[in-house]
Write a structure and sequence with these properties.
By secondary structure, the chain is of the alpha+beta class. The protein has three domains: about 90 residues, Ubiquitin-like (UB roll); about 90 residues, Orthogonal Bundle (Fumarate Reductase Iron-sulfur Protein, Chain B, domain 2); about 30 residues, no CATH class. The protein has eleven helices and five strands. Strands 2-1-5-3-4 form a five-stranded mixed β-sheet, with helices on one face. Helix 5 runs antiparallel to helix 6 and helix 6 packs across helix 8. Bound molecules: FE2/S2 (inorganic) cluster (FES). FE2/S2 (inorganic) cluster binds next to loops.
Length: about 240
């Protein structure tokens, strides 16, 4: 079928939505996400795209409407297109992540490691832009306050669903990076404040005592084909 006929048929059977990508007008089928709509419109989405499932945070996107210029935020792989949506891709957020060695950061009474790593945390004046921007609806400003008090546990709880898209940092007038601060808090909590699981400790001990040496040596000598076969035939824990 000729392309124009196919397009005509598609338009007849599917409700088409008017969208604008970087100012250019397109029609795309209702129900597509911003990401799939971009591809439908002919864009090759190879930057600002990862898991396509709302987990990796690579697809932070801003959009508005022709009748409402307020900037809104979303993950492009999750947000469905709407009539008269104006889409602007934001493929990359420059961000400065503190460089640290977790081993040097044991939490101590009276020392807020997060403030040491991110001193501008103290400049938050509570505008709440970060919370309004978060596509995961997290209480970002709340966990920034928790971070300021050095409450790693609270930051962990409130930021658990963060996908590291960086949109919160993009909107902070003080240049604070809530997502990186929360990541540091979760790492500190995991390293120092959570008891190590006994089964892990037991397994590490077994490895150190050489329990698996023979098997590991055999694996090292295996061909790629053999490794692939063993991988495909491995025992998989049933899903709960
Ligand atoms: S592509 Fe991974 S969150 Fe959207």
């Amino acid at each position: 079928m000729a392309a124009d006929k196919l397009e005509e048929k598609t338009e007849r059977e599917t409700k088409m939505v008017d969208v604008y990508v970087m100012g250019k007008h397109y029609k795309a089928p209702e129900g597509l996400t911003i990401q799939t709509a971009l591809e439908y419109c002919g864009y090759n989405v190879i930057r600002g795209c990862g898991c396509r499932a709302g987990f990796c945070g690579a697809c932070g996107t801003i959009y508005s409407f022709t009748y409402d210029l307020t900037i809104k935020y979303a993950l492009a792989c999750q947000k469905e297109i709407e009539q008269n949506m104006v889409i602007m891709q934001v493929p990359f957020f420059p961000s400065i992540e503190a460089i640290y060695d977790l081993g040097d950061l044991e939490p101590e009474e009276g020392k807020n490691r997060l403030l040491e790593l991110y001193p501008n945390l103290i400049t938050c004046f509570g505008c709440n832009n970060c919370t309004k921007t978060c596509p995961q609806d997290l209480l970002v400003m709340d966990f920034v306050s928790d971070a300021l008090r050095g409450d790693y546990e609270k930051v962990y709880e409130k930021s658990f669903d963060c996908v590291m898209c960086g949109l919160c940092a993009a909107r902070c007038p003080q240049g604070i990076q809530p997502y990186n601060i929360a990541l540091a808090a979760r790492r500190l909590r995991g390293s120092y404040l959570t008891p190590a699981p006994q089964h892990n400790l037991d397994r590490v001990k077994e490895i150190e005592e050489g329990k698996f040496d023979v098997e590991l040596e055999a694996l090292k000598k295996s061909s790629e084909t053999e490794l692939r076969r063993r991988y495909a035939e491995r025992e998989i824990e049933p899903a709960l």
